[in-house]
């Protein structure tokens, strides 16, 4: 696992400055503390930071082809690299190392840009092709590894994180108003946007070519849904075999390896399959909270005992202020998913013992695990209730109920369900993944911000993804949307940034592209059967996992943030959302923000999502934008 970056000047006579390239690499040192490498050839510069996991002895980057005309820097793991190596050797390619990085370079020599179609893994990569004088960069099919880029009339800059790009003095630091609106709506910024104007993410399953100052961006993989025949038992056997293999190939490592274990179905399944593939006890890592509805340690312990893992767990009572400041300092663009907190804490605990972990991320998106899929079905049934009864009795009664301190609970779920129904029905299950509605924005945004957005529909990218699978079933459409939005730009961002902050590599068996393609062939009823989510996974794992795990409800990996915002984090919230600071930023109406804080603190409403997003944005702005702009003046 590594971090990569680079800069190319359109003017071939303008040399890359070694000091600048070094600064870009140093900005992402946390992604690879073991080594660094550089290539400077006139107007072209590539750099990397390495976390040594495969071919520790000889896998230093950049790696060159036989005649030195091509070079690669690479972030990720290629799990089928040995098979590819044998094929390439048979075709006459000579290897100097045992690394997967060199395999990619020779595959590029042999297949050109189609080399990415041969790779099974997670990656962000960059190849300088001196013969053609072009740069080839690419991102893996599901978007596990990140890649950003910036282009103007003089230069092309890329990197695993925005931090690397921000080392370039000429790069403008102007907030993209549309990205900000998307962030406050969904708690993340969807690809290809970034928080900065003219800085973009390479979308999942895309490659980019830079030649003579011009950029071409193209997809190389498309997920399609088409149900195939087979009995329930046969499909369950196929699922288990594929997931077992996806887990097994992710155990390759020359350094200690373990697993995150929340006690949910997905992480428990991965631990079970790791135990079947390893002759040593699996190391597992879990965290809990003193608040009972957020504490899942008993479930994790049950799985650990079942498979005899070497188990590590902690009850977390963190310094919430210090943790918040640390997280915002790492996140170089706004991100408001609460689960960054436990993800960082469990990553930090695991890093004391291992360098690589397997996680259960991706299972919810490919096997219909979210409550939002159920909510969409309930909404269709709820529509049959007479409108007068819904509007005059049911909905006012539910809104009148005060939120509870529980993680979910019947009252909190009912309130959230009614809130989602206020959004357009064509958004499907995404209605329950939206945290700031248009009417609320009208009261929150200043006239300047509203003017900067017009005309703009924050739901356009969601509707675009829905239409991309218009011939599929509603569930197929919903999963496709989640895989191409929420998974890539929220879940995987969280896991990558928090694990890499402590130099820990996280691997995701559920996102083996072969497994994802298989799940897309399952009839909807094998993914979501009545009220039972992940139906076929439960069938496949029924003889392996404890009943306690198979039949528990979906909880999610979260923290008691609504309590923290009333207690530990309240002074920090009031500091960053003060009237003076909001006026200085000029984007939000102070009176509206003050009302949100008062209602939340009094327990009248749960505004934790809105307040945390505003607070984290204000902290980001001061840390990454205002401070740096002041330094440049």
Describe this structure in words.
The chain has 633 residues and is an alpha+beta fold. Among the domains are: 2-219, Aminohydrolase, N-terminal nucleophile (Ntn) domain (Glutamine Phosphoribosylpyrophosphate, subunit 1, domain 1, 4-Layer Sandwich), CATH 3.60.20; 232-368 and 474-550, HUPs (Rossmann fold). It is built from 27 helices and 17 strands. The strands form three sheets. The chain has a six-stranded antiparallel beta sheet with strand order 2-3-1-9-8-10. A six-stranded antiparallel beta sheet has the order 4-5-6-7-11-12, covered by helices on one side. Strand 14, helix 8 and strand 15 form a beta-alpha-beta unit.
Helices and strands in order:
Elements: E1 2-9, H1 18-27, E2 35-41, E3 44-50, E4 63-64, E5 70-78, H2 81-90, H3 100-111, E6 121-129, E7 134-139, E8 148-151, E9 155-159, H4 162-165, H5 177-186, E10 199-201, E11 206-211, E12 214-219, H6 232-249, E13 257-260, H7 265-277, E14 283-289, H8 297-307, E15 310-316, H9 320-330, H10 340-351, E16 356-358, H11 363-366, H12 371-382, H13 387-400, H14 409-420, H15 438-444, H16 447-453, H17 460-467, H18 474-501, E17 505-507, H19 513-519, H20 524-527, H21 535-540, H22 547-550, H23 561-564, H24 570-576, H25 579-585, H26 590-601, H27 608-632
Parallel strand pairs: 13-14, 13-16, 14-15, 16-17
Antiparallel strand pairs: 1-3, 1-9, 2-3, 4-5, 5-6, 6-7, 7-11, 8-9, 8-10, 11-12
């Amino acid at each position: 696992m590594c971090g990569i970056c680079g800069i190319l000047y359109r003017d071939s006579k303008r040399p890359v400055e070694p000091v600048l390239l070094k600064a870009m690499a140093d900005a992402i040192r946390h992604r690879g503390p073991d080594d660094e490498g550089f290539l400077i050839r006139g107007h072209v510069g590539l750099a990397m930071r390495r976390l040594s996991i495969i071919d520790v002895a000889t896998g230093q980057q950049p790696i060159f082809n036989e005649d030195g005309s091509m070079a690669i820097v690479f972030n990720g793991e290629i799990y089928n690299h040995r098979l590819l190596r044998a094929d390439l050797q048979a075709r006459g390619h000579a290897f100097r190392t045992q690394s997967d990085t060199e395999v990619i370079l020779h595959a590029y020599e042999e297949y050109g840009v189609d080399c990415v179609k041969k790779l099974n893994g997670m990656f962000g990569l960059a190849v300088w092709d001196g013969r053609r004088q072009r740069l080839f960069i690419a991102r893996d099919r599901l978007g596990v590894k990140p890649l950003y880029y910036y282009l103007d009339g003089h230069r092309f800059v890329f990197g695993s994180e925005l931090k690397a790009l921000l080392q370039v003095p000429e790069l403008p630091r102007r907030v993209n108003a549309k990205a900000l609106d998307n962030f406050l709506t969904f708690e993340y910024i969807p690809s290809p946007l970034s928080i900065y104007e003219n800085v973009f993410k390479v979308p999942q399953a895309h490659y980019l070519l830079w030649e003579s100052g011009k950029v071409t961006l193209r997809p190389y993989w498309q997920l399609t849904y088409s149900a195939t025949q087979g009995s329930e038992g046969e499909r369950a056997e196929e699922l288990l075999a594929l997931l077992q293999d996806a887990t097994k190939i992710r155990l390759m490592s020359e350094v200690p390896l373990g697993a995150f274990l929340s006690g949910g179905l997905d992480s428990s399944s991965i631990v079970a399959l790791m135990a079947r593939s390893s002759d040593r006890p699996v190391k597992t890592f879990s965290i809990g909270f003193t608040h009972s509805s957020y504490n899942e340690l008993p479930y994790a312990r049950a799985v650990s005992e079942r498979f005899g893992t070497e188990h590590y767990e902690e009850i977390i009572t963190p310094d919430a202020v210090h943790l918040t400041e640390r997280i915002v300092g790492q996140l170089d663009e706004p991100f408001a998913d609460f689960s960054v907190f436990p993800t960082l804490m469990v990553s930090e605990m695991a890093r004391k013992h291992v360098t690589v972990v397997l996680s259960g991320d991706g299972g919810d998106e490919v096997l219909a695990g979210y409550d939002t899929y159920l909510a969409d079905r309930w909404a269709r049934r709820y529509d049959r209730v007479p409108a007068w009864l819904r509007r005059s009795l049911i909905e006012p009664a539910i809104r009148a109920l005060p939120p509870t301190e529980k993680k979910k609970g019947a009252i909190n779920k009912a309130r959230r369900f009614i809130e989602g129904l206020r959004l357009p029905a064509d958004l499907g299950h995404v209605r329950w993944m939206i945290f700031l509605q248009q009417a609320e924005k009208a009261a929150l945004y200043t006239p300047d911000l509203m003017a900067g957005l017009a005309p703009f529909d924050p739901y356009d990218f969601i509707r675009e993804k829905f239409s991309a699978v218009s011939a599929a079933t509603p569930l197929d459409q919903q999963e496709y949307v989640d895989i191409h939005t929420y998974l890539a730009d929220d879940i995987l961002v969280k896991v990558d940034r928090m694990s890499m902050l402590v130099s820990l590599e996280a691997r995701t068996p559920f996102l083996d592209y072969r497994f994802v393609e298989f799940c897309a062939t399952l009839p909807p009823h094998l993914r979501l059967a009545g009220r039972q989510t992940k139906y076929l996974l439960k069938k496949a794992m029924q003889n392996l996992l404890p009943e306690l795990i198979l039949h528990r409800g979906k909880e999610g990996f979260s923290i008691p943030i609504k309590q923290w915002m009333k207690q530990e984090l309240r002074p920090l919230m009031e500091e960053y959302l003060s009237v003076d600071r909001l006026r200085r930023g000029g984007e939000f109406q102070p009176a509206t923000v003050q009302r949100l804080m008062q209602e939340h603190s009094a327990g009248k409403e749960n505004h934790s999502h809105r307040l945390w997003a505003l607070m984290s944005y204000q902290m980001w702005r001061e840390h990454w934008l205002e401070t740096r702009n002041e330094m440049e003046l």
